[in-house]
Structures are given as C-alpha cells and as structure tokens.
Amino acid sequence: MVAPLLELQDISLSFKGVKAISDISFAVKQGEICALIGPNGAGKSSLLNIINGVYQPDIGYIHFNGASHRKMRANLAATQGIARTFQNIALFKSMTVLDNVLTGRNLQVKSGWLEQALRIGRAITDESVQRRKAEEVIDFLRINQWRNSIVSTLPYGLQKRVELARALASEPKLLLLDEPMAGMNSEEKAEMSGFILDTQREFGTTVVLIEHDIGVVMELSDHVVVLDYGKKVGDGTPDEVRRNPDVIAAYLGVKH
Ligand SMILES: Nc1ncnc2c1ncn2[C@@H]1O[C@H](COP(=O)(O)OP(=O)(O)OP(=O)(O)O)[C@@H](O)[C@H]1O
Fold this sequence. Notes:
- The chain is an alpha/beta fold.
- It folds into two domains: 1-81 and 172-256, P-loop containing nucleotide triphosphate hydrolases (Rossmann fold), CATH 3.40.50.300; 92-171, no CATH class.
- Helix content is 39%, strand content 25%.
- Strands 6-7-8-3-9-10 form a six-stranded mixed β-sheet, sandwiched between helices. A four-stranded antiparallel β-sheet has the order 2-1-4-5, with helices on one face.
- A hairpin with a 2-residue loop joins β9 (223-228) and β10.
- α5 (122-140) crosses α6.
- Bound molecules: adenosine-5'-triphosphate.
- It holds the Pfam family BCA_ABC_TP_C.
- InterPro entries: AAA+_ATPase, ABC_AA/LPS_Transport, ABC_transporter-like_ATP-bd, BCA_ABC_TP_C, P-loop_NTPase.
C-alpha cells in the first residue's frame, strides 16, 4: 500500500461569503498522476491554490509529506517541494528559455547575495551546479534548440513546455499543473502527456493536474477527482469515475 504524499481533509473555502469549495477530502498517493476535473467554476484552480498556499482554506487540513498544515503558505509549499504551472503561462517573457529555467533553481542556491555579487566562495560552485541542473531539465524536455531563445518569440505549446521545465528544475516532490494542455492541438497534447508520464517514471514525481480534455485525462491519470459546484462528486480510477452516474450527470455530458 503506497502512502499518500498529499491529503486534503475537509477543506472549505469561500470568497466574500460565497462558497467556492465545500468540505473536500481526498488523498494523492506518492508517485501517482491525479487529475482534477469538473465544469468551469467547479473550484479546481482554487484547490490548487490551497495546496500551494496561495489561498488559505476557511477550515480543513493539508497533510503533505508527513506534516499537517492548517494553512499552507506559498513559501513553505515551495521549500517543501511543491511546484506549479499556471493556466495563463507565467514566465519571464523577455528572458531566454535557459534563464527562465534557472529561476526554477532559486531555492537550491546556497550562496548569499554578497558571494554572488562578488562571484566568490560558494557562488562559484553554485552557479555551475544550478546551470548543470537547468541544462539537464532542458535536455529532458527536448527544448535544447531553443535554450537561448527569448520566451515571447516561441509558439504557445513550447512556452507551456518551458513552464514545465522551470517547475521541474526545482526538483519537486509534487507538481501542480493547471491546464498544461490548454490551447494545444491533439499532436501537442500527446507530446505534453508523454512528457508528464516521463516525469513520473523518471523522477517518481507526484502530479496533480487540471485538464478539460476527458480523453487525455482518462489516458494519462492513475486517479481522477471530480468537482462540481465546489463539491466532490467522484474520486477513483479513470474507469470507476467513467462509470459513476453522478459524474456523468455533473460533467461528462457537459460540453466545454
Ligand atoms: N480570487 C477570487 N475571488 C472571488 N471569487 C473567486 C476567486 N477565485 C475563484 N473564485 C470563484 O470560485 C469559484 C471556483 O473558481 P475556480 O477558478 O477555482 O474554478 P475552476 O474549476 O478552476 O474553473 P475553470 O475551469 O474555469 O478554471 C468560481 O465561482 C469563481 O468565480
């Protein structure tokens, strides 16, 4: 039995008295790919924001990697190994691919600002270690040929891959992906799915992702959690969820 890496317990969240998430509990096992699905406004992004400490739930607990948190904080989530990509790509668009990926290594930097400014002490080894790690991720996601390109000049699908690279550069235990395949054609979606699976296999990374394309979700995920109006209406393997009448009623019949 694989222990959960992440467990949400009785999580509720409201915005100005309006409930966005109601009493949600589920567990994500170490090393699995878990998809959060549900209609627009179901609470999926809010839940990711709770996991990585951008939003604090009104009630409930977040258990992560053996520690329990009444509220997660964004900096704590990052130092504990939770990385995130966004629905609207959040890269430094005027910087190169390599420099963007290097920002994913910031938390691993050991030297202080003075050492870095003067390029002395730990700063010298630090820089080469961070650069090597960034280059490894760039190789892994096969974006080598664009490593010196300015991000804004790249097509959308590639920018999505660079954002994944930056998240992976932090060597996360848990990777949160908010619609990693949004706006992609089927070929690009298959490629991105392949990279997510490779990440799971190669590094054992646990993944929680939001995706609207049910075909992709069913192929890619080990576990699917279904939300509707802030409530959990399904939780199981892709096959279990596919057969769940509540899920069919809430989601699978709804066209996005
Ligand atoms: N910062 C906020 N302030 C006020 N209301 C918010 C905020 N963030 C989310 N909401 C509301 O909470 C509910 C859930 O939104 P959320 O973005 O989490 O849904 P979602 O399932 O991710 O939707 P989508 O698939 O469209 O991205 C919605 O009613 C939304 O309007």
